[in-house]
Amino acid sequence: MIKFFKYLFLIIICQIINAQNPIKFVTEVNKLSNDNYQLIINGEIEENWRLYSIYIEEGGAIPTEIILNITNANDYEISGNVIESPTVTKFDPIFGLDQTYFVEKNSFTQNIKINNKNLKKIFGKIAYQACDDSVCIFRESDLEFSLDGSSVSIINDDLSKLNPSEANPLLINLKNTEYLDDKSSNMVSSGNNLIDLIILGFLGGFLALLTPCVFPMIPLTVSFFNNKEKSDSSFYAVIYGFFIVSIFLLISLPFHFVETIDPEVLNTISTNAFLNVVFFLIFIFFAFSFFGFYDLSIPSSLISTIDSKSNSFGGFVGVFFMALTLVLVSFSCTGPILGTLLVGTITSQGGAIQLSMGMLGFGLALALPFTLFAFFPKMLLSLPKSGRWMNTFKVILGFFELAFAFKFLSNADLVQNWGLLRREIYIGIWIVISFLLFLYLLGVYKFPHESATLKRNKINFSLSLFCLVFAIYLIPAIFPGGSTSARLLSGFTPPSFYSIYPSKTDCPLNLNCFKDFNKGLDYAQKNDKPILLDFTGWACINCRRVEENVWTDPKIYDLIDNKYVLISLYVDDRKELKDEDKLELTYESGKIKLIETVGQRAATFQALNFKSASQPFYVLLDNDLTILNKPIQYTSKDIYLNWLEEGLRRIK
Q1: Is the separation of the CB atoms in 571 and 603 below 8 Å?
Q2: Whole-angstrom distance, CA of residue 647 vs CA of residue 627
Q3: Within a domain: residue 425?
Q4: Domain annotation covers residue 480
Q5: Residue 421 in domain
Q6: DSSP 498-551
Q7: Spatial CA neighbour of 110 closest among 57, 24, 46, 32
Q8: Residue 315 has what pLDDT?
Q9: 162: how many CB neighbours lie within 10 A of its CB?
Q10: Do residue 100 and residue 204 come from a single domain?
Q11: Counts of helices then strands in the chain (DSSP H, E)
Q12: CA dist 371 to 166, 246, 513, Å?
């Protein structure tokens, strides 16, 4: 359930400057016969980094690409495809799905046939994406193969070594560059607020407390303690509450052991399509149990055995078995809520500690009334009487379970790209569920376990009206242009680009943006607006997370749309530049760097001017190229909003 309410990501990333190169390549040539050679590229990969395969499916990382320069078609011929060393196919936390990649070391081998006997060297280029568990970089390196068999180390481009005396059209005259010299992390970890998790667990426990399996047991249990001496009554009530909390905490222990064996196992679960479909079916099962089609219950023989032990033992042991009996007897109502908490926390980032905090809150909510009423028994008189309202509440929870079930089916659909639950279809299902709940609360129909439909009283009418208003609120989101509607569901719904409608723009969230810095700057100057410079990538998952979970906030979206000029530069865009836009930059060593693609230009522009090579990377500029505040990367809504507002305040 935590995933439904808080989309917080425990990501701590340090800024990666351009000089850092996690992959080092060495080329060599193996002569097979007089005319046949093998061109070999050996890579050494830094610890915790991954280099992706050439033969990787679309939808995740950018595949590695090797391009050999053939200036004269008669020099040599390429024979067959590139042969790779053994790869690993495993869950990748950056892309949220299985990816094929190399770790530690790798090699690429290309067979060629030499036609020109005087050919001494072959040149080429390797373009690749490399990621660790939190950030990705995109690099291109020049290749050189010496046909005499000698090895050649490939030195990755260090843009700080470009010739400073050369006129460089990518350099801009920035002001306030001291913001770029701050070496503290630009990445703000959203973290996981454990107090929030406890509170959310507490809310789940409170909901369980109001169900017909738990609520009637409060006066019965409290009366048992009140029959003891006053000092013992309060003491044993506290112990009883402590044991309830302890039992729920114990439920989370196995997940800590599993996480110790494999830290990625819970993360793997969260994006496994098969398991998400299983969770979808489990939630449907829970929902129909709340609707009264069947009951979830612990075998009565087990409950009787536990209950008898509570009577057989005295003191602490007897109270423990009383607490365990409560947990088991109430399972038919608490089970679905508890299952929601279990599934929600193990499918969210943060691991088993989230589950423990949620269980702590859940147990506290159940234990608190038993302990509190034992201290103040007269408060029992203020409790509402058991009745039809508890069954109604249980059915309402069933509708919530039904709505949440489709979130897991959506997860599987997004990972596998089935196209089943596009954003509008998903929201349409929620509209139908809301409308069905509206009709139920009006007394239009009933469920099998109910003897009659609901009476139309003020409470039921108010709740039904709320459901109708919510359904109406969602309706605009299913029509064209509705990607910015239903923002209350941000994090629940599929991303706006996963739509049944063709996008009118290739800018995020249908915002107006520029893909060329100079054109964007010119527009900002003519309209006297500051600039939000967005260094991004087509395969940058954290970039999508910011766009879908941060930019969708109404206040943030409004600022970007109306107060700033958005310039989005894609560093992994391999579209070739026009001939007049291509550049040759010279290093101090005399080496030439060619800028031939849109992505090369964007990446070089970022590294030269902003001393960074990681994405997402956001910079606020006034239209006179004054940096307004410190650039940031992936962060929370609150910090991003404050950052945008701070930029506006600093405009002179």
Answers
A1: yes
A2: 9
A3: no
A4: no
A5: no
A6: S-SSPPS-SSGGG--EESSHHHHHHHHHHHT--EEEEEE-TT-HHHHHHHHHTT
A7: 32
A8: 61
A9: 21
A10: no
A11: 19, 17
A12: 77, 14, 58
Q: pLDDT by residue (tens digit) across 263-285?
A: 445 545 555 678 778 888 988 88
What does R_g of the chain's alpha carbons equal in angstroms? 31
C-beta contacts of 227-234 below 8 A and 24+ residues apart: 233/374, 234/374, 234/375
Is pLDDT above 50 for 191?
no
Q: Do 355 and 216 fall within a single domain?
A: yes
Cβ contacts of residue 382 below 8 Å, gap of 6+?
none
**Final residue of a structural domain among 334, 361, 387:** 387
Residue with tokens 């690993």: 88
Residues 234 and 379 in one domain: yes
Give the pLDDT score at 628: 92
CA 70, distance to chain mean position in Å, is 43
Q: Do residues 316 and 239 make contact, with C-beta atoms less than 8 angstroms apart?
A: yes
- pLDDT score of 571: 84
Question: Domain tally for the chain?
Answer: 3
Contact 333, 216 (CB under 8 A): no
How far apart are the C-alpha atoms of 321 and 608, rounded to whole Å? 68
| Residue 429 confidence (pLDDT) | 95
Q: How far apart are CA 41 and CA 151, in angstroms?
A: 10
Measured CA to CA in angstroms, residue 478 lies from 217, 428, 469 at distances of 45, 7, 16
Please identify, among 140, 157, 174, the residue that sits at the C-terminal boundary of a domain: 157
Handedness of CA 360, 365, 366, 370 (dihedral sign): positive
- Token output for 198: 């406890």
The secondary structure of 585-649 as a DSSP string is EEBTTS-EEEE-BHHHHHHHHHHHHHS---BSEEEEE-TTSBB-S--B-S--HHHHHHHHHHHHH
Separation CA 97–CA 81 (nearest Å): 26
On whether both 210 and 359 belong to a single domain, the answer is yes
DSSP 133: S
- Separation between Cα atoms, residue 21 and residue 76, nearest integer Å: 31
Q: Say yes or no: 140 and 220 in one domain.
A: no
| Per-residue pLDDT tens over the stretch 344-388 | 655 554 556 777 888 888 888 888 887 777 676 666 666 666 667
CA angle, 92 as apex, 87 and 97 as ends, to 5°?
105
Domain assignment of residue 235, given as a range: 194-387
31 contacts: CB under 8 Å, gap ≥ 6: 37, 38, 147, 149
- The model's pLDDT over 193-222, given as tens digits with 9 standing for 90+, comes to 567 778 878 888 887 777 766 766 676 666
pTM, two decimals, is 0.51
Residue 106 pLDDT exceeds 90: yes
CA atoms within 13 A on the CB side of 319: 24
132 and 270 in a common domain = no
Same domain as 217, residue 152:
no
Token pair belonging to 566: 């958005």
Q: How far apart are CA 215 and CA 223, in angstroms?
A: 14
The verdict on 370 and 309 lying in the same domain is yes
Burial string for 466-499 (b: 16+ CB within 10 Å, else e) reads ebbebbeebeebbeeebbbbbeebbbbbbbbebb
**Complete DSSP assignment for 616-627:** SEEEEE-TTSBB
Q: Give the CATH number of the domain where residue 48 resides.
A: 2.60.40.1250
Asked if residue 78 is part of any domain, the answer here is yes
End-to-end alpha carbon distance in the chain: 46
